[in-house]
Amino acid sequence: MESSEHKTDLAQLVEVNGTERWSVFQRLRELEIPCWCEPNQPLRVYLSDTIATVQFWSVSRQQSASRQELVLWLEQCWQIN
């Protein structure tokens, strides 16, 4: 059994700048994705697997995309069979 909480061979450390970093930080914490955010510093996110990466992408997209882009994206998802 591996004692490390994270698999370092799969992990990626991502930084998020801008005003949306605090809302992204809060949502990632709710999703239990390891992340750190200090004042005047970029948000740092530890992505250890595919699920965390997709969740991070989704959360960050919701913060950065316009409402129209999100509506179009959702409509496309509904059309995929």
Automatic annotation (TrEMBL):
It comes from the Bacteria. This is DUF3143 domain-containing protein.
